[in-house]
Each structure stands twice: as C-alpha cells, then as structure tokens.
UniProtKB/TrEMBL annotation:
Pathway in which this enzyme or protein is active: Aromatic compound metabolism
Protein name per the record: Hypothetical biphenyl dioxygenase beta subunit
The UniProt record lists the keyword Oxidoreductase: yes
Keyword set, alphabetical order: Aromatic hydrocarbons catabolism, Dioxygenase, Oxidoreductase
Length: 184
C-alpha cells in the first residue's frame, strides 16, 4: 500500500494490478469479438457466446424527465431479443442468395471504448459496460452509424471467456438505416 496526500493508506498494489489485468483481458475479448464481426467471421463470433445467451436491444423512446419509466422494459418492443438458436438463424440468413441487403456485403467497423468491469456475486462472471459505434458502409454512398452503450455479462468457462448476456442501448430514437443486418 502507498500513502495518500492525506496520510491514509492507498489501494493495495496487487489488487490494483489484478483488476487492471482483468479489465485488459475482458477488453481484449470485446475487441476480438468486434474484429470477428468486422471480418464476417460469424461462426467464430457464435463460438464466443454461451449456449444460454440472451442478446437484447430494446427500441428507444424519447421520454420527458418526469416520466417514471426511465429504462426500457423487457416487455416492450425490441429490435433484438435473441437466443443462440435465433442468432444462428440470423447468421445463416446472411449467407443466403436471397439476402439482397447483403449483396454486395455491408462493410462494418465496430469501435469499442469506455470498457468498465464490475465483479459479480459469481466469481466466474463479470459485468462489462462499454460504448460502441458501428459504422456501416454499403455500395458507394450508403453509410450509417449506430452508436450506444452495452451492458454485458461475460462468463469464464473451460473454453475461455464467453458472452452470456448483452443489452444494447442505442442512442438514436429513430433509425434511419434501411436494415439492421448487423450485430452490435
């Protein structure tokens, strides 16, 4: 421990180092996931998910501050409310000849930042907050940017880190994109 200006003991250096290493490990996991999505390595991405994954992105409503319903309800409309099987179907859909919105394919760039890690009551699970921007380009002039915050539950398994839950909160209340052929 090291002394603070007020004379009190500071943060335990070993605990600080362990927390920094854990944060770095989880940040690397999120960056690897983003690269897999950018490179359309969807099977690799699916392998990064737990069998009980819940992938949820609610619709966003502009609300006055006086409105008591500040957070989206799980019972309200969601753009995504998927299990692993449903995510597999969405991935398979991108490979179909009838997926006209993906021919030519969309070029993605996922930017992940502001990664913050919280310990949970379960020693093998971590709550990970992050911000994202998903820049999507298609054809010559089509460009959309989706941005927002994510709340993930990442689980340590025998096979490594896996994403068990993801809640995606877009900042746009109105989506101007022609489609949502993306994973965030």
């Amino acid at each position: 421990m090291y002394p603070q200006a007020d004379g009190t003991a500071g943060i335990d250096q070993l605990a600080l180092r362990a927390r920094m290493e854990l944060t770095f490990e989880l940040q690397q996991f999120l960056l690897e996931e983003a690269r897999a999505l950018d490179e359309e390595r969807y099977e690799d991405w699916l392998a990064m998910l737990t069998p009980d994954i819940h992938y949820w992105m609610p619709g966003i409503q502009a609300r006055y501050r006086a409105d008591e319903r500040r957070t989206p309800s799980r019972s309200a409309m969601a753009f995504f409310d998927d299990t692993l099987d449903e995510l597999r179907v969405r991935v398979a859909r991108t490979r179909q000849k009838t997926a006209w919105a993906e021919d030519p394919p969309t070029r993605h760039c996922h930017i992940i930042t502001n990664v913050e890690v919280q310990l949970t009551a379960t020693s093998s699970e971590y709550r990970v907050h992050s911000c994202f921007a998903n820049v999507r380009n298609r054809n010559e002039v089509e460009e959309q940017v989706l941005y927002g915050r994510r709340e993930d539950l990442v689980r340590r398994t025998d096979a490594g880190l896996k994403l068990a839950r993801r809640a995606i909160y877009l900042r746009q209340a109105v989506l101007l994109a022609k489609n949502l052929n993306t994973f965030l």
